Amino acid sequence: MMWPLLMRGKILKIAAVWLLSSALAGCGTISEFFAADSYEAPPAELTEFDAEFEVKPIWSTNTGDGTDSNYANLAPKLLDDRIITVDSRGDVRSHDVENGRRGWRTKLNLPVATGVGGGEGLVVIGAQTGEVVALGEADGKEIWRQRLSSEVLAPAQVGGNSVLVRTADGRLTALSANNGNILWSYQRSVPLLSLRGVSAPVIEDDRVIAGYDNGRLVALALSDGKVIWEKSVAVPRGRTELERLVDIDADPVVMDGVVYAIAYQGNIAAMEIFDGQTLWEREMSSSSGIAVAPRDAVYVSDDQSYLWAIADGSGDSLWRQTLLLRRSISAPTIAGDYVVVGDFEGYLHWVARTDGRFVARQQLDKSAIRSQPLVRDGVLYVITTKGKLSAIRIPGL
User: Fold this and answer.
1) What are the extents of the domains in the chain?
2) Which of 51, 63, 80, 169 is at 20 to 30 A from 243, Cα to Cα?
3) Quick check: 230 and 249 in contact, CB under 8 A?
4) Could you count the other beta carbons within 10 Å of the beta carbon of residue 373?
């Protein structure tokens, strides 16, 4: 079987309409435009191992239609005693974290390609139409909505009475959490060619950290959007637009005053949040994401679906798990003594943090696990692209 892809399994977006039109003249798909890189070897077959424990969901529930899109990541959001989900049609549901039982439900009838945002009593949904809708966390009733300049491709973040939203046109917009009015906007130009998607901003105290498609990481003042510092995580290199892709599509992580970020075809880096000073970096490529155990290790799902453990402080490799090659694994999640990732066939893989060996595996669904699993109070929450949400007790916690 041949496995079609665009840029090693990533979906590309063309910033200029004229380029897209001319590239597609006389051909049926964008993939034909990149014919030299149109196929790759199939995903690795799963290997047998001696499981050290059995993965048993506490509960599972349906959350709607999920998504059939090749790029949408409809990640849920943990808020207080609820986990909030959304499907591709804007069907927003609240579920009890203890048993999965559904609470309120709100149908927005909007096309959605990204996960749930929220905080400070709000649930925030961004749509492909550019609309941003704020619902009450307690009852799901609409509080306000605002239309922005382009489609929303990352979950909105809430903090400091502001709602931060990234759109596909390179714009970061701060909205009032009270009424949705625009407070400020910051924009960077989008390269001619980039991966489909953007990273979500991170709010930390009085700062907003945002990654861009040009490989730059920016720290802005939450109050007015003014630039505090800006650093390169990757520098475009090569002669073709494909070779020069350096998107920061994985969400930055902030812990203990350090910002961790990774770029596609670039580097992973740790920087001081105060001034952006680089503490360490190493070459690595990912658009999926990372998980951080400060002063211990940074776990990375790279663009080949290798799972890495990188020493925090030096960037040295601790171990690399290669047996999930090309299985389109999700961003990793730290779950007690384990690192957990999902794959394109709905398998959940548990890997020992000490040495990277497999310790458990279960297929939760036949559809992909694309969203990074969530952890709270010793429970792992996982959603598949068909909308099946499962809660799993983490061994030892």
Assistant:
1) 1-42, 44-70+290-308+319-397, 72-195
2) 169
3) no
4) 24
Give me the sheet containing 216-221, strands edge to edge. Answer: 202-204, 207-211, 216-221, 227-232
Dihedral-angle region of residue 203 (phi above 0 means left; psi in -120 to 50 means alpha; beta otherwise): beta
Burial class (CB in 10 A: 0-12, 13-18, 19+), 294: middle
Q: Which of 115, 183, 110, 166 is CA-nearest to residue 142?
A: 110
Contact 113, 128 (CB under 8 A): yes
Between CA 76 and CA 86, with CA 81 as vertex, the angle to 5 degrees is 25
* pLDDT at residue number 32: 38
Structure tokens at 174: 């701060």
Decide if pLDDT at 39 tops 90.
Answer: no
Q: Say yes or no to pLDDT of 12 above 90.
A: no
* Class of the CATH-defined domain 44-70+290-308+319-397: mainly beta
Round to whole Å and give the CA distance between 160 and 19.
Answer: 40
Q: What is the DSSP letter of 276?
A: -
Please tell us whether the domain made up of 72-195 is placed in CATH 2.30.40.10: no
Q: Please, what is the Cα angle at 204 between 146 and 164, to 5 degrees?
A: 10
